[in-house]
């Protein structure tokens, strides 16, 4: 997969990114809806203010009308707003004298309008005709404009007069647009604030999942054995299922260990019988057949022990810890009773409070194999030591915080060119040099690797040092 494609796939798979994007879209949609509502409310507010202004102009227009003695309708006091005198200013008045009888026939239907209308006549709607209550309309104005009109019918000395004032709606639209432009920066700041709040909310909401991740990492490294139930209600069932899965896996591992032990007992007895047959054949002088059987038996033993170790270590690194001093003493107590071990001085130079991240049984098996090999080649002394791995070696192995649990003898050592084959997977000292040692070195290496460490062999002056580089157990365990 190409780098940009992999990056895009990661972004699509990010729950955090999905939640943040969903929050951002929701915030923008909500603010857009709020902006539209505020503009509508502002427009309605401006229209109400315009209505009040038109009502004042209408009252002034009515108050300024009068009739002459011959019944003619005249505007004695025109409204005071100077826009009425400016052509096409956007503010207009008009009145129609409907007359009051035969005496008014000469003036019936007369229409007068403000100078601002110039030669345009307002087409007053028929629905307000004859109604004394004010009516509000939207009508066509001069120059293809839309006017907001307020009109009413009044009785003036017995004759009805229809008066009206109007204002260009463009003033309302301009005020609304200005309000929208003033509102936009505040909405932008509010959007940024709400998006930041959404990011914070997502971070807080996903924190329990990070706690689950950290808990699993702690379980994997051996610092914990279970997640526990210290989680919110929504996460607690997940943590419980994971703990149940861990418990079931541990039960399966224990069952596998038990089956491996049973298999070991079942196979070692036939191998011991073959070993006895080899001795009897050698005693009878049939060395060639004995050598063949011994080779086959050793190969069988090697494969059986390796497969048993793999079965036992199939679960990988666990959460167990071991006290290397106690395990080393237990191994010495057994090996020192063998013919090869009884002649040696066994020294355990390990702190009693030291702890390693490894199962005690696995550590005992690894140290047992190393102790048996050391007993075969040591001259007088075998030492068990535990020291930190130097920083340069830890960097080289890319496994920081390792300690070195070494088994060192004072024997002749081995040629340097044989160390590589020995430490390689499947390497054996008996195949390389015929000493018969090293049958369990592959198992030792696999045990170390299963617990996140490594196995190294180095010549010393004098002797040979075989070491397990393992992680120390977390403090408090």
From TrEMBL:
Location of the Histidine kinase domain: 262-474
Gene Ontology annotations for the cellular component aspect, listed alphabetically: plasma membrane
PANTHER family according to UniProt: SENSOR HISTIDINE KINASE TRCS (PTHR45436:SF5), SENSOR HISTIDINE KINASE YKOH (PTHR45436)
GO MF entry, a single one: protein histidine kinase activity
Catalytically driven reaction(s): ATP + protein L-histidine = ADP + protein N-phospho-L-histidine
A Pfam cross-reference name: HATPase_c
Protein name: histidine kinase
Lineage: superkingdom: Bacteria
SUPFAM superfamilies from the UniProt entry: ATPase domain of HSP90 chaperone/DNA topoisomerase II/histidine kinase
Subcellular location: Membrane
EC number: 2.7.13.3
Predominant subcellular localization, coarse grouping: membrane
Gene Ontology biological-process entries: phosphorelay signal transduction system
Residues covered by the HAMP domain: 203-254
């Amino acid at each position: 997969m190409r780098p940009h494609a992999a990056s895009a796939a990661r972004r699509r798979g990010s729950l955090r990114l999905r939640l943040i994007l969903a929050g951002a879209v929701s915030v923008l949609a909500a603010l857009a809806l709020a902006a539209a509502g505020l503009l509508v409310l502002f427009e309605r507010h401006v229209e109400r203010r315009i209505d009040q202004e038109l009502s004042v102009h209408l009252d002034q227009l009515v108050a300024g009308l009068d009739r002459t003695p011959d019944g003619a309708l005249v505007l004695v006091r025109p409204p005071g707003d100077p826009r009425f005198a400016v052509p096409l200013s956007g503010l207009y008045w008009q009145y129609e004298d409907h007359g009051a009888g035969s005496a008014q026939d000469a003036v019936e239907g007369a229409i007068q309008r403000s100078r601002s209308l110039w030669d345009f006549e307002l087409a007053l709607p028929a629905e307000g005709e004859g109604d004394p209550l004010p009516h509000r309309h939207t009508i066509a104005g001069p120059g293809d404009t839309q006017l907001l009109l307020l009109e009413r019918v009044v009785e003036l000395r017995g004759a009805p007069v229809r008066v009206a004032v109007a204002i260009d709606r463009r003033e309302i639209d301009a005020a609304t647009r200005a309000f929208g432009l003033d509102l936009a920066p505040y909405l932008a700041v509010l959007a940024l604030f709400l998006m930041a709040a959404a990011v914070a909310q997502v971070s807080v909401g996903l924190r329990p999942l990070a706690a689950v991740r950290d808990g699993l990492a702690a379980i994997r490294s051996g610092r914990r054995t279970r997640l526990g139930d210290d989680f919110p209600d929504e996460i607690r069932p997940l943590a419980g299922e994971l703990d149940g899965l861990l418990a079931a896996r541990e039960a399966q591992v224990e069952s596998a260990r038990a089956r491996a032990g049973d298999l070991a007992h079942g196979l070692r007895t036939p191998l011991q019988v073959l070993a006895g047959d080899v001795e009897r054949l050698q005693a009878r002088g049939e060395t060639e057949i004995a050598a063949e059987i011994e080779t086959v038996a050793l190969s069988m033993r090697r494969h059986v022990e390796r497969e048993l170790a793999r079965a036992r270590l199939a679960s990988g690194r666990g959460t167990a810890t071991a006290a290397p001093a106690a395990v080393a003493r237990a191994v010495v107590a057994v090996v020192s009773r063998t013919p090869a071990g009884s002649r040696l001085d066994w020294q355990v130079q390990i702190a009693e409070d030291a702890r390693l991240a490894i199962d005690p049984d696995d550590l005992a098996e690894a140290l047992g194999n190393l102790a048996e090999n050391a007993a075969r080649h040591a001259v007088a002394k075998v030492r068990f030591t535990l020291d930190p791995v130097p920083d340069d070696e830890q960097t080289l192995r890319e496994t920081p915080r390792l300690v070195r649990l070494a088994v060192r003898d004072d024997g002749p050592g081995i040629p340097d060119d044989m160390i590589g084959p020995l430490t390689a997977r499947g390497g054996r000292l008996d195949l390389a040099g015929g000493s018969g040692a090293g049958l369990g070195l592959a198992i030792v290496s696999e045990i170390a690797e299963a617990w996140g460490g490594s196995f190294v062999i180095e010549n010393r002056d004098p002797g040979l040092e075989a070491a397990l580089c393992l992680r120390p157990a977390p403090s408090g365990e």
